[in-house]
Structure formats: C-alpha cells, structure tokens
Design brief:
Elements (H helix, E strand, L loop, with lengths): L8 E5 L5 E5 L28 E9 L11 E6 L3 E8 L4 E10 L4 E10 L3 E6 L6 E5 L4 E5 L4 E4 L16 E7 L2 E7 L5 E3 L2
Parallel strand pairs: 3-7
Antiparallel strand pairs: 1-2, 2-3, 4-5, 5-6, 6-7, 8-9, 9-10, 10-11, 12-13, 13-14
GO molecular function, one term: tRNA binding
GO biological process, one term: tRNA wobble base 5-methoxycarbonylmethyl-2-thiouridinylation
Pfam family, one: Beta-prop_ELP1_2nd
C-alpha cells in the first residue's frame, strides 16, 4: 500500500505483522537495503532510483502479537497515519484502528480503536478530503473522519444513508459536483454510485 500521490513512499505489511516503510529520495545514490549481486555478479547497474528503507515498525496492539495476519485493510493516510482493521473473534465483528508512526518507539502506535458491529470488507480514501469510506458486510457504508477520529454512517447531501445492495469488491471515493460520493464495483462488474 502507498500514501497519497506525491509523497513518494511505499509500506509493506510483512508476514510477521511488522510494517516496512520505504521512500524514494531524490539524489540518494547509494542504497544499502537493495542487494544487486544476484548470481554472484556485481555488474548490474540500476537505471532507476531504488527505494530506501526508512524503518521497520511493530504494530502496538494487544491482539496482533499472536495473530499478525489478523491485520487487514491497511490505509496510509497523510502525516504518516495508518488506518487498519482487525477481527474480533468473540463477537463476529471488526475493530477499526487509527494510529501513527512513532520513530522513537519504532512502532505504529494506535491512537483510537473503534468497534464496528459487522465485518469490514474494504476501505477507500478520498485524497482531497482525507475521509475514508468503510464498507461493511451488511452493505452499509461508514465514513471515518481522521481529524475527529469519528466513524459515522455515510450520508448523501439529501441525508439518505449510503448502502450498496451487493458487496462491492472494488471501492473508491471521489467528488462529483459538490458532493462526496462512494463508487462501488461488484465482481460481476455492476457499478454503483452512492449505492
């Protein structure tokens, strides 16, 4: 997953539950994280910039240490904040977590955890407003607002709740006119705008 355009970084969720963050720094000529000596040779010279490892971070969350692959739907938000979900096994529901990178702790510190009454199937960021659309297994769409760390039902300008009639495997958020809308595409290529 990657942050908004122009930030020049990539983050990788690894099998052990840690997050590796890479950035492409212009002008950096030597990268110690990339090995270019495959098959015993050293004659390969890259013709492009290679990413530089910024750090490997643990996710500071109680339930994630024993089940690292329980972390799902990672979104990299501006200002090095992350939004991701875990599954609550005891109640058939999901938990939405909002955290940030702490360089001194070498970890992603969770600021807020919000329980959700259904499974979260996907999340999409509107890069112009930083609002996140969260799709539930019921078809309901919720809006996460990072500034207030609140999770609300997504509503149209007319005040109607947004709900997809069928689960959408692909989802995006954009503005059409002066309304922020949720776009959904099913696996059979049915296209929905605000449900």
């Amino acid at each position: 997953f990657d942050p908004s355009p122009g930030t020049n970084g990539v983050a990788c969720l690894m099998a052990n539950g840690q997050i590796a963050v890479f950035r492409y720094d212009v002008g950096e000529s030597k990268n110690v994280t990339a090995k270019l000596d495959a098959a015993g040779g050293d004659g390969f010279k890259p013709r492009c910039d290679l990413p530089i490892l910024v750090g490997i971070y643990e996710v500071l969350l109680e339930d994630c240490s024993s089940y690292p692959m329980n972390i799902q739907h990672f979104l990299w938000l501006p200002s090095d904040h992350f939004l991701f979900t875990t599954i609550n096994d005891s109640s058939s529901a999901s938990i939405l977590h909002f955290g940030y990178i702490s360089s001194e702790k070498k970890a992603i510190v969770v600021k807020n955890s919000l329980p959700v009454e259904a499974y979260i199937l996907g999340a999409a960021l509107n890069e112009s407003t930083n609002h996140v659309a969260v799709q539930l297994s019921t078809g309901d769409i919720l809006k996460f607002v990072p500034e207030s760390e609140s999770l609300l039902p997504w509503q149209t300008n007319a005040g109607d709740a947004v709900k997809f009639p069928i689960i959408c495997t692909e989802m995006a958020v954009t503005s059409i006119g002066n309304e922020e809308v949720v776009l959904g595409l099913t696996e059979r290529f049915r296209f929905y705008v605000n449900g």
